[in-house]
Structures are given as C-alpha cells and as structure tokens.
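Entry type: protein chain
Record version: 2
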Amino acid sequence: MTDTKSACCSPARSDQSAIEPVPTSQAKEEQTPLRVLIPGGRGLIGTDFPELPVDGEAPLRQKRIASFQMDTITVTNARFRTFVDATGYVTDAERLGDCFVFENLLPKDAPASRAVAAVPWWRVIDGASWHEPLGPGSAASCLPDHPVVNVSWNDAQAFAKWANGRLPTEAEWEHASRGGLGDVPFPWGDQVPNDTDFFPCNIWQGRFPDADFGLDGHRGTAPAQSFEANGYGLYNMVGNVWEYTSQPFVVKSLKKSVKQAHLGKTGFKLSKGGSFLCHASYCYRYRISARTGTSADSATSHQGFRLVYDT
C-alpha cells in the first residue's frame, strides 16, 4: 500500500478534556463477559513489512509480557448501560453535545448536519451519543450485544476504573491478538480478507466511502461476539470497532514527512485493530501492527474498547 492510502478514517476534536469523576457506587457490574488468560512470554510488536510506515508500524520488536486476563469481547451497549445506571456517568459526547457519525449510517431523512472538512463522510451529529448512536431517536438498546460506540478514551478509562480493569498496552493488545501464532498480520494467520470469498472479520467490502456491500454479513457494527475467535478465544480483535489502548499515540521518526503527517496530534491516544470502515483501498488498518490515534475526548461511531485485568 502507498502513502496515498494512509489517511486515517477517524476525525478528532481539537480540544482535550479531563476524565470526569465517577460517583462511588456499591452496585456490582453486570453483563460481564468471559475473560481468558493470556499467557505471558515473549511478545511481538509491530512488523518488518509495514503497509503504512507513516503510522510507525515498523520495526518488529520483542517485549517480555506478564500474563494477564482479557475480555473475550469488547464492552457492549448492555454492559455500558449497567455502568451508567450504577454511576450516573455522563460521557464526553453527552457533555459536549455531539459526536462524529459515519454518513452512510444515517437515515435518508436525517436532518442536515455539518461535514468534517478533511474526511467529509463523517458528520457532526447534535445529540448523538453512546445510547443514541445516530442522534436523537436512535436508541442503542435495540443492539444490546453490539460494541458500545461514541465513547471517548476518557469514557473508557472511567469505565475501566469502575470495572476494576484497565485498558491494554499496545504490546499486550498485539500479543493477545496474535493468539499464539507469532509474526502474522492477522489474528487468524496470513490469509488476506477480500471482497469475494474470504470474510473473517467485519470490514468494508466495496468502494469506500460510497457503497459497503456487506458481504461479511454486516453494514456497521456486528455483535461483539461474532466471526471466529482467535487462538486465545478473543473475538473481533480486528475489524468491527477500533479498540483504545492505555498509551499515547507516538510515532518515533526523524523524517519531516512523518512529522508533518502527525502535526497537531500531541496528547492523542493510541487505538488498535481497525473497524468496519476499513478497506485495503483506503484505510488498510485491520492488521495487528496497524495503529491510529485520536484526541482523548473524541467519540465516533466506529470506536470501542475492551478491558484487561492483572492476574
């Protein structure tokens, strides 16, 4: 892939917000998914064959990783609802009054909305949030088993604190995503998804951003537990929704072109895994080594998270 296809598919807010305090609650977490033990050992990070060098995918390197537990699925709408009901938490999108929604998800009779100049397929939708993902009247309660979206990194951190977990590091996320297979580009191995007969994850099929044929069975998000799990029993480690990590988005490079590409991203947070909007022709980031960043208070309709737990 060339750098002409390296633009990120995510917009970001220009300001930064602190994590809102979470009220103390004695309510126990419900809708808790299965956790699996991820064995420690020699973890691999990155790749020696980067598709998007500008993102800092290379080189392949090793890191010792202690064993940890990880949710087999991303946090769902139902699980996030339990958190909100227990704490009264208000997300960044609710507090700020809007978030970014992918244009083709909106109904044809949707009110006029503001486009994002750099990525016009994203719309700023007033009133959109995690529980009304397409704006007022679009309740997420009808998709309880789908990943919660329109949540910021700040929101994910607040949820993790309440759930006695944390967001994974990039090394932990990649180690878990590889499922014991070692130096592979995808959680299932080496075979590349296509638009004809191999659909191992929820990504875009067709010409982005005009038409998603939905050949993998989904336009938009899929249930958090769908497709085949990887070798560690983890679902949708690539595709479906981006997953926040605990780390800042940093690209170490002396090249002026790379520095220019990431100008203004100070304080951005690192996400992994790609989403249902990814396609090889535009955002080839549904690979283990792929990475992107966004501001801590940004919320979009293709961004979610899952938790890890120290053993």
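Comment: Residues 90 and 253 are 38 Å apart (CA to CA).
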